[in-house]
């Protein structure tokens, strides 16, 4: 079973070039993560945060004042390095190792974060499986693998965040229907949010990576449904990158050419994506929508996945 903490970039076994990493640590805060009326730093859980895009997001949030729970499935050493870098910025961090495809293990993640860091205010669902199949090679097992890695954990973690925030703030348990009744909203100085990492190819479909695409399409629908179901206490936002990182399948000049294949002449960088995640967590008026971070690649018709071109 491949490492499900790999975020979608181009393919299994993705390899980041040196310029693709750690730009967040050199960024500048968009908005303070510290609510004005409280003395509590906000805490985020970032799944698949040991390396690549997840690491970039975790570092960006730390730059902006967040404490961060760094999740990994297998890359414990890289996750510990990310946590150390966050602590070096003066923020708190912990490492949570769990196979999110295991339902019981996934349910245990939020309690572990709260025990380690005291609270949880946001979840960034970045970890992802990305294996190749087509309509000709599709199997139940392949679809189930992707749904268990890419879709179901995001729902479970959003559910757990809503329950934690309600208990912490002394509110009634969430109903999951968006009909929580009077007094359901969080206090003005409290915000809770979920960001789901999606993919521009949902708006520019091609038949490659069928099960992966179906799992991300389900996650995109879950983003809208959860925004309704968990309102008004939890916001849910999608972020859809374009071609962002190199992989074993696509590197060098060909990657550079395809990265420029967009109306803006550039697709997303890891820093672009991380900044957008931070923006989504900071802007309390956004929920139930997806922010496209792809240089407009979703506006072009690509007959194959980038890694197949």
Keywords:
309 residues, alpha/beta, seven-stranded parallel sheet, 11% strand, disordered N terminus
Structural overview:
The protein has 309 residues and is α/β, with parallel strands linked by helices. It is built from eight helices and seven strands, in the order βαβαβααβαβαβααβ. It has a seven-stranded parallel beta sheet, with helices on both faces. Helix 1 links the parallel strand 1 and strand 2. The longest helix is centred in the middle third of the chain and has 29 residues. It is globular, with a radius of gyration of 18 Å.
The fraction of residues in strands falls at: 5-15%
Strand order of the largest sheet: 3-2-1-4-5-6-7
Oligomeric status:
single chain
Sheet of most strands? 7 strands, parallel
User: How many angstroms separate the termini?
Assistant: 26 Å
Number of helices: 8
How many E strands?
7
Structural class: alpha/beta
Low-confidence parts:
1-38
Short description, anyone?
The chain is an alpha/beta fold and 309 residues long.
Topology readout:
Blueprint: E1 43-46, H1 52-63, E2 67-72, H2 76-88, E3 93-97, H3 103-107, H4 109-117, E4 122-125, H5 140-168, E5 193-197, H6 210-229, E6 235-241, H7 252-259, H8 270-282, E7 290-293
Parallel strand pairs: 1-2, 1-4, 2-3, 4-5, 5-6, 6-7
Helix pairs in contact: 1-2, 1-8, 5-6
């Amino acid at each position: 079973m491949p490492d499900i903490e790999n975020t979608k970039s181009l393919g299994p076994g993705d390899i980041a070039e040196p310029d693709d990493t750690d730009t967040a640590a050199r960024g500048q805060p968009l908005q303070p993560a510290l609510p004005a009326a409280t003395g509590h730093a906000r805490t985020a859980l970032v799944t698949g945060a040991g390396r690549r895009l997840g690491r970039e997001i975790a570092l960006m949030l730390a730059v902006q004042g967040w404490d961060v729970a760094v999740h990994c499935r297998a890359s414990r050493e890289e996750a510990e390095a990310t946590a150390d870098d966050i602590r070096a910025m003066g923020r708190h961090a912990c490492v949570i190792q769990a196979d999110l495809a295991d339902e019981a293990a996934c349910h245990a993640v939020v309690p572990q974060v709260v025990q380690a860091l005291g609270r949880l205010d946001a979840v960034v669902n970045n970890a992802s499986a990305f294996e190749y199949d087509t309509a000709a090679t599709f199997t139940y097992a392949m679809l189930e693998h992707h749904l268990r890695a890419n879709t179901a954990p995001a729902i479970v973690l959003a559910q757990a965040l809503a329950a934690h925030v309600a208990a912490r703030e002394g509110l009634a348990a969430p109903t999951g229907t968006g009909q929580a009744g009077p007094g359901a909203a969080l206090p003005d100085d409290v915000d809770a949010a979920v960001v789901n990492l999606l993919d521009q190819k949902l708006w520019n479909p091609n038949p490659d990576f069928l099960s992966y695409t179906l799992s991300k399409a389900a996650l995109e629908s879950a983003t809208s449904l959860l925004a309704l179901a968990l309102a008004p206490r939890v916001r849910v936002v999608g972020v859809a990158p374009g071609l962002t990182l190199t992989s074993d399948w696509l590197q060098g000049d060909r990657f550079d050419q395809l990265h420029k294949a967009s109306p803006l002449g550039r697709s997303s960088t890891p820093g672009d994506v991380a900044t957008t995640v931070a923006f989504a967590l900071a802007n309390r008026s956004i929920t139930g929508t997806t922010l496209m971070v792809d240089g407009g690649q979703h506006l072009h018709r690509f007959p194959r996945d980038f890694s197949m071109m």
